[in-house]
Write a structure and sequence with these properties.
Elements: E1 2-5, E2 12-15, E3 21-25, H1 28-33, E4 37-41, E5 45-49, E6 55-57, E7 64-68, E8 77-81, E9 87-92, E10 105-109
Parallel strand pairs: 3-10
Antiparallel strand pairs: 1-2, 2-5, 4-9, 6-7, 7-8, 8-9
Length: 114
């Protein structure tokens, strides 16, 4: 189990599992925010605080509901559906607490092509 939050701590969450890979997308949104994403089934993530506080941003094909804290602007995760129909969470590894990013394999994704 790993846990994380937005910068100000209003939004908190927990995820089952241990990330070993982080996806670095070069689309205009991900690259500007510096995301390093871990994709997990939606039921492996639980919002423990601040679910009612979250705001949502979508763009392009509006496939991912990018969730962010309106207080600090931090985006700890996004919610969407995988190509096979599985509800998915895209967790921003940079928002995990007490987690060492050095052990994560970075996987480049060409989001500009979409």
């Amino acid at each position: 189990m790993v846990s994380g939050s937005c910068h100000c701590g209003v939004v908190r969450f927990e995820c089952e599992g241990t990330p070993t890979e982080g996806y670095e997308c070069n689309c205009s949104h991900c690259s500007r925010k510096g995301f390093l994403l871990w994709f997990i089934p939606r039921d492996a993530m639980r919002i423990t605080e601040g679910a009612d506080s979250l705001s949502t941003y979508t763009f392009n094909r509006h496939m991912i509901k990018h969730q962010f804290c309106p207080t600090c602007g931090c985006q700890p995760f996004g919610l969407g559906t995988a190509p096979d129909g599985t509800e998915t969470a895209a967790v921003n590894l940079r928002c995990l607490e007490a987690f060492d990013l050095a052990g994560v394999t970075r996987v480049p994704v060409d989001g500009k092509a979409y």
